[in-house]
Specification:
Layout: H1 7-24, H2 28-33, H3 40-52, H4 71-81, H5 87-90, H6 97-107, H7 110-121, E1 127-130, E2 147-151, E3 154-165, E4 172-178, E5 189-195, E6 201-206, E7 220-231, E8 235-236, H8 242-278, H9 292-322, H10 328-352, H11 355-358, H12 364-370, H13 381-394
Helix pairs in contact: 1-4, 4-8, 6-7, 6-8, 8-9, 8-10, 9-10, 10-12, 10-13
The structure holds flavin-adenine dinucleotide.
Length: 404
């Protein structure tokens, strides 16, 4: 593999990094103290600057106003933007819109693209993805209660979903619902576009997560769909293709998440090293950096970040060259491995900061709370570990240990 980063990408990533440090990191104290909605005017100002620099929507198609970077290129971008919680949002490549844009681009009809995809890429509207249900295991989504019944020229959607991230203020939801209960399990559900102003779309609440209810883009909603009637033309992709499309949405999405998590790792790693180097621990001037245990944390973090980064770039390369299906194993490996590295590195950085680490005077405690979810969404650790192990063990079935 060639690890050279092209001149073009070095320039792009360099500009983004400078913007993150100069324009976005200074907004973090307000971000931590205020309601996100009240930050929108200043966020829009920064977005306008990003558009002017022609760095808007790096991973989205050129024909819709994005930069059209490929997955490997966007992985590098995602890492640098991940250094701050608002990076991806300000540059127009945030989840869940990013995944919705991908599937609308691939499966949307010309009308759906005109009405939903164009303004979504432009950052004029937002969307959410509504699959997980309150009463059923998200880890096994074939167990799904939500239904979309065909009635005349429309679908009538009913169901109780939660963790629909960023539903507050979204213009539409892409909803997974059962359209054909008699079909084989993986062909039962479809994706339907439900505008949030449809009668029967009830955002019950923004869920309090780790003590924060959040607002607007930074929130997770519970939604009750009560006889929500939408035109049949709102079906996204063929009927029954819901799970197949969801799988496709998740492949590149996991690369984006993992590289974003590595951006977080590199940010808190910098903070950890800086704190260790400056915190004087005894009257003779010795700092935390002189303590072996802290040195071990720093060395282990450096190694884990580097390993996670190479694994993620390799998975991105495999998706690009062979497709999502062929890269399934690598995608599962990075999903749990990088989430674990993230958790360990953030925890060490917090520990090195002592009481300061627990405060909101640094960004570390936000990452500690918020990113615990990395081990749960997009497939919990255990689901990915079991999937990988099963595939590995298949190759050993029937082989005698003695003859190897
Ligand atoms: C911050 C956040 C954002 C999210 N955003 C969205 C969103 O935008 N849209 C959306 O639809 N959903 C979203 N989700 C929901 C997420 O996809 C689900 O939480 C996830 O799929 C797990 O489902 P569950 O919560 O029902 O847990 P369950 O399926 O009940 O699993 C609980 C636990 O059981 C264990 N487990 C599960 N399966 C196995 C197994 N086979 N073997 C051993 N152990 C197992 C795991 O430890 C798992 O954490 C979000 C969740 C979070 C936390």
């Amino acid at each position: 593999m060639d690890f050279t980063v092209s001149d073009k990408m070095q320039a792009i990533v360099g500009m983004m990094r400078e913007f993150v440090e100069k324009e976005l990191v200074p907004l973090e104290p307000d971000f931590l103290a205020k309601d996100f909605r009240s930050m929108l005017p200043v966020i829009e100002e920064k977005r306008a600057m990003v558009r002017q620099m022609e760095l808007w929507a790096p991973n989205h198609p050129r024909e819709y106003g994005g930069m059209g970077l490929d997955l490997m290129e966007h992985a590098l971008v995602s890492e640098v933007l991940g250094r701050t919680p608002i990076g991806h949002f300000v540059f127009g490549c945030h989840a869940p819109d990013a995944g919705n844009i991908e599937i609308l681009h691939k499966y949307g009809t010309p009308e759906q693209k005109e009405r939903w995809l164009k303004p979504l890429v432009a950052g004029k509207i937002r969307s959410c993805f509504s699959m997980t249900e309150v009463e059923l295991p998200g880890s096994n989504p074939v167990m799904m209660d939500a239904t979309a019944d065909r009635e005349g020229d429309g679908y009538v959607v009913n169901g109780q979903k939660w963790y629909s991230t960023a539903a507050d203020g979204a213009a539409f939801a892409i909803v997974m619902a059962v359209t054909n209960p008699e079909a084989p399990p993986y062909l039962r559900a479809s994706m339907i576009i439900v505008p949030t102003d449809t009668p029967g779309f009830n955002r019950v609440r923004n869920i309090s997560v780790m003590g924060h209810t959040g607002s607007d883009f930074f929130s997770h909603a519970e939604i009750l769909y009560q006889s929500c009637r939408v035109p049949a033309a709102n079906l996204l992709g063929p009927e029954g293709w819901g799970f197949a499309i969801a799988q496709e949405r998740l492949g590149p999405g996991r690369i984006h998440h993992c590289m974003r998590w590595l951006g977080i790792c590199s940010r808190v790693y910098d903070l950890m090293c800086r704190r260790a180097a400056e915190r004087v621990m005894s009257p003779d001037g010795r700092t935390l950096a002189t303590k072996q245990i802290v040195q071990v944390w720093i060395a282990e973090s450096a190694a884990e970040i580097q390993a996670a980064r190479l694994m993620t770039l390799h998975a991105a390369w495999k998706i690009e060259t062979l497709g999502v299906k062929e890269a399934r194993e690598e995608i599962s490996l990075i999903k749990f491995y990088v989430a674990g590295v993230l958790q360990r590195v953030v925890d060490r950085a917090l520990q090195v900061h002592g009481g300061l680490g627990m405060t909101d005077d640094t960004i570390i405690s936000f990452f500690y709370r918020h990113e615990r979810a990395a081990r749960i969404y997009d497939g919990a650790d255990e689901v990915h570990k079991m999937a990988v192990a099963k595939r590995i063990l298949k190759g050993y079935a029937g082989r005698s240990a003695r003859r190897v």
